[in-house]
Amino acid sequence: LTQLYAPLNFLGFVYREIKHALADMERMFGLLEQDQEVADRPQASALDTTRASVEFEHVDFGYDSRRRILHDVSFTIPAGHTLAVVGASGAGKSTLSRLLFRFYDAQGGTIRVNGVDVRDLTQASLRWHIGIVPQDTVLFNDTIFYNIAYGDTGASRDDVIQAAKSARIHDFVMSLPDQYETQVGERGLKLSGGEKQRVAIARTLLKNPPILIFDEATSALDSRTERAIQEELEQISRDRTTLIIAHRLSTIAHADQILVLEHGRVVERGTHAGLLAAGGRYAQMWRLQQSGGDRPGDGEGQELAA
Ligand code: ATP
């Protein structure tokens, strides 16, 4: 019986590996399923650029024809600039990023990259030019190295380490017993929200896309983590065309332009200073966050927002 133990144990291991690999694939296909909404046009061209401007012109959109989510949204992000979008939950902020990534096509208006309608670009080339740091990063059941290198499968070990350093996760990784070989994901080490976001940032830095979408996590953060994320954001958005879906106004004070979205409409736009001076919705939201009014229990945030 003891002779049987090793092979059976091995078979059990193989079974678990296959099951987890399938779970990863399911998750990936879960993401890809949304693609069915759009198809490449026969004459679609491939986007090929290191600098990209993004333009939304009179964009109307609803996931369902009976319910309009975005109404006449227009904005331009010149190449290398940062635009931040703020607004209440459900206002349509993340929907903007899904449209830019072309998970869906707008029902009205036009979205352009470098002046070209995204519907005239191949989806693969468009998406290759966009890096997303999502609110909640999905980690594969694999090593930290694999999870970062996923951004660029041809990356060398030095490239991965450099990206991890820029994303400020290298020191943490080196403090683990298995370092870059540490298993993460459901079966391995559970990373905190901030650590997972840094893995996503390292992945994005490795991919080095000209367009960046940063979907800020909604969860309350202590002021130290918040400041660290702000620094990371500045690091990755430098020289990139950046769209920030923001929940904390303190992280976007440096943005070139801020849009305030309400029920899918742009109700205000300007710089942080300009919007504060205007004394409208943004100024009101700023005062509320400063007083900690919409983040109960996170007293530290006041210090940063002030
Ligand atoms: P939050 O700050 O909570 O992330 P948000 O401003 O990013 O919110 P969106 O995710 O853009 O909001 O959602 C806008 C609206 O669209 C919401 O009312 C939401 O219910 C709806 N919605 C989002 N995704 C889908 C979908 N896949 N199918 C149908 N409706 C959706």
Structure write-up:
Residues 54-288 form the ABC transporter domain. This is ABCB family ABC transporter ATP-binding protein/permease. It is found in: Membrane. One of its GO terms (molecular function) is ATP binding. Residues 290-306 are annotated as: Disordered. There is one protein chain. The protein is α/β, with parallel strands linked by helices and 306 residues long. Helix content is 39%, strand content 18%. It contains eleven helices and ten strands. It has helices spanning 2-32, 93-100, 123-128, 144-149, 157-166, 170-174, 193-207, 223-237, 272-278, 281-290, 300-305; strands at 54-61, 70-77, 82-86, 108-113, 116-117, 130-133, 211-215, 241-245, 257-262, 265-270. The strands form two sheets. A six-stranded mixed beta sheet has the order 6-7-8-3-9-10, sandwiched between helices. A four-stranded antiparallel beta sheet has the order 2-1-4-5, covered by helices on one side. Helix 8 links the parallel strand 7 (211-215) and strand 8. The radius of gyration is 21 Å and the shape is globular. It starts with a helix and ends with a helix. 32% of the residues are buried. Mean pLDDT is 84; it is low at 295-306. Bound molecules: adenosine-5'-triphosphate. Adenosine-5'-triphosphate (ATP) binds next to helix 2. Adenosine-5'-triphosphate binds at residues 63, 69, 87, 89-95.
